[in-house]
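can u do me a favor
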């Protein structure tokens, strides 16, 4: 079992930056990719960014490329999402997921992720 806890969300203005954290505990050796997803009211959960364990290969949604950066810190099993130039359309609950699948790239479908955190709210005002 893996427990994921997100933190770092908040209310910011357009153009500001935030750093989200996803701390993992439990059987942390069982994951092969960890990713950030987001879900706005009335919308489906969508992939934002992910990172593979084997080589730290990363993948980003087109909507956040050049603005968001995902990174990992092995010593404390934490994955970060650095968000710059935030826009009102980035407003959502951000979830951290961990996948056990061994794939050639970071999976982008929520169904590929077995473990989830409870989410952290990010609100960007215009």
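np, heres the sequence
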């Amino acid at each position: 079992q893996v427990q994921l806890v997100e933190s770092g969300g908040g209310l910011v203005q357009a153009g500001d930056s935030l750093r989200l954290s996803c701390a993992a505990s439990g059987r942390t050796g069982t994951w092969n990719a960890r990713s950030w997803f987001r879900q706005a009211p009335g919308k489906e959960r969508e992939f934002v960014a992910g990172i593979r364990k084997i080589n730290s290969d990363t993948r980003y949604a087109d909507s956040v490329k050049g603005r968001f950066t995902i990174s990992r810190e092995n010593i404390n099993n934490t994955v970060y999402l650095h968000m710059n130039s935030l826009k009102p359309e980035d407003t959502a609950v951000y979830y951290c997921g961990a996948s056990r699948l061994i794939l050639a790239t970071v999976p982008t479908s929520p169904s590929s992720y077995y473990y989830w955190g409870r989410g952290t709210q990010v609100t960007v005002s215009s």
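The longest strand covers residues 18-26. hope that helps!!
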